[in-house]
Structure to design on (561 residues):
């Protein structure tokens, strides 16, 4: 074969290789040992704004945003030794300095002058539970606590040798207040980049807020080195150059004794407990030294929730919700009280949500409330009641299928039962949740959106969901007399709801002065100790001659959760 034929054959093989490569990539890069670009092919103008000849000889480090450098460094170093890493999204920059994410994977060839061969693809977009409604797959936005819990349990089912690590920056909230906005955002981006660079996949790192983070990594990751790097970045951002104490603890699942279905339940619970801002039942020290005790505690908690749910080992109490102008009782909210416990079952409910057992408890509450309606009819008094449903339940497709058959006895009097959707946890699937709410409304049951103004998604929910009633969180009501801003917000919410033909309820009403303020703000209904303390005997509210005890509760809330 002559030289021309040989060259032609080689070109043909090269073109065939490129054709196969471009089936899965928008851009191909070859880097030298020093990470300089020696070959590039693909949509360079569209992606970078540079021609091929401009990129040759350029360091790839000059094409990424500064906070992504550790991610790229980790990706390339991970290839040495024959490892082909999972695709990882990295923010590059175009000629104008604007961000351009690319999903990268590749291979390192020792025998070809120690060169790196990268396949680059414009990333797809997937839904996420993050406040941002869209997130790039494996991209620069790390998980929140809900999505990380799901991702961790799924990942570790098939990768039991990987590690789950929790990292906490002590007193981060107070520290962050000392930083200007740009410094704070840059520090957050840098920490997230270090976590993504250290994770098994780009989509296995989480930021829970309050200086708390989660990470899934390979067994050989040096966690101490990672926390040292994070500590250096925090110190560099500190105007005083002191920084913060960074603590971490890891679980190696293969050595933990967690197996089967218990693994998902235990992991999810630990993640949620750690992520909660003020959790007192979980600490990194516990995790580092007492994993068996933690698992035993999780098992005991789950068994108790199941026992209470299946045995209906709880009672229901009633609190009136009144028309503010007429003071007539409009309906009652049903509140659960766990037998042998005092006060609101807040910890019980939160643990049930974290352990994915809340749907069963919600259904048990519904059964007991429906039975009460059947056994306590009245032609003299209005006995409509409202049941709380967790956001986790209403956002689960199977829940409404289990609930609707229970409602059959009320088909002729659906107005006797209302539903309040609480935002104690984030709604996993808003589309499914809205379908469930509309199913209930079509059956004649009114639906109320609870805790409005507390969750970060409140306004978004009001836009996404068609509801009949909106309950304004008590924090606005409590502060309205002393804080003009809270009063303005109350009136704005009430006026907006009137335009939407949605009724409003204000909770935590403690006195006549607050009642008059709410009337002036155009709020329809009120709930609070001023109108009645929760009681298991509903007749105490129906018979005015019975004495009532009005107790001021400060900042506590009588509620389902």
């Amino acid at each position: 074969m002559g030289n021309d034929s040989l060259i032609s054959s080689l070109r043909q093989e090269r073109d065939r290789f490129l054709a196969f490569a471009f089936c899965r990539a928008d851009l191909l890069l070859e880097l030298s040992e020093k990470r300089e670009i020696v070959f590039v092919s693909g949509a360079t103008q569209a992606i970078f704004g540079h021609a091929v000849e401009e990129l040759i000889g350029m360091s790839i480090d000059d094409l990424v945003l500064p906070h992504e450098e550790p991610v790229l460094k980790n990706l390339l170093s991970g290839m040495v030794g024959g490892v082909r890493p999972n695709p990882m999204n990295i923010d590059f920059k175009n000629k104008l300095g604007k961000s351009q994410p690319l999903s990268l994977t590749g291979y390192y060839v020792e025998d070809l002058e120690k060169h790196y061969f990268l396949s680059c693809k414009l990333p797809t977009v997937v839904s996420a539970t993050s406040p941002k409604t869209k997130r790039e797959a494996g991209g620069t936005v790390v998980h929140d606590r809900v999505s990380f819990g799901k991702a961790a349990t799924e990942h570790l089912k098939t990768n039991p040798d990987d590690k789950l690590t929790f990292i906490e920056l002590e007193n981060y909230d107070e520290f962050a207040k000392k930083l200007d906005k740009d410094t704070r955002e840059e520090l957050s981006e840098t920490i997230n980049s270090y976590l993504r660079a250290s994770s098994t996949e780009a989509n296995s790192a989480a930021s829970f807020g309050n200086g708390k983070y989660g990470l899934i990594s390979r067994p050989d990751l040096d966690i101490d080195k990672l926390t040292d790097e994070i500590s250096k970045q925090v110190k560099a951002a500190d105007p005083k150059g002191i920084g913060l104490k960074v603590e971490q603890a890891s679980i190696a699942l293969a050595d933990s004794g967690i197996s089967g279905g218990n693994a998902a339940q235990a992991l999810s619970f630990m993640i949620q407990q750690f992520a909660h801002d003020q959790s007192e039942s979980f600490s990194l020290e516990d995790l580092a030294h007492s994993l068996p005790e933690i698992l035993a505690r999780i098992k005991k908690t789950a068994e108790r929730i199941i026992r209470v749910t299946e045995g209906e080992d709880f009672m229901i109490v009633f609190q009136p919700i009144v028309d503010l102008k007429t003071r007539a009782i409009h309906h009652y909210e049903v509140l659960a009280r766990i037998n042998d416990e005092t006060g609101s079952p807040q910890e019980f409910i939160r643990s049930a949500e974290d352990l994915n057992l809340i749907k069963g408890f919600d259904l048990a509450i519904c059964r007991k409330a429906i039975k009460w309606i059947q056994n306590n009819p009245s032609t003299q008094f209005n006995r409509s009641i409202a049941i709380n449903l967790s956001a986790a339940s209403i956002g689960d497709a199977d829940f409404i299928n289990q609930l609707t058959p229970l409602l059959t006895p009320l088909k002729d009097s659906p107005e006797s039962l209302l539903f309040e959707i609480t935002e104690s946890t984030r709604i996993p699937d808003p589309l499914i949740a809205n379908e469930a709410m509309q199913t209930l409304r079509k059956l004649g049951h009114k639906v109320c959106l609870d805790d409005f103004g507390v969750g970060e998604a409140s306004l978004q929910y009001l836009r996404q969901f068609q509801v009949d009633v909106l309950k304004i969180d008590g924090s606005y009501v409590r502060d309205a007399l002393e804080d003009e801003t809270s009063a303005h917000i109350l009136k704005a919410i009430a006026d907006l709801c009137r335009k939407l033909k949605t009724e409003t309820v204000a909770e935590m009403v403690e006195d006549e002065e607050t009642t008059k303020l709410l009337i002036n703000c155009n709020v329809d209904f009120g709930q609070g100790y001023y109108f009645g303390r929760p009681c298991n005997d509903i007749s105490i509210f129906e018979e005015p001659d019975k004495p009532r005890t009005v107790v001021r509760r400060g900042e506590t809330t009588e509620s389902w959760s």
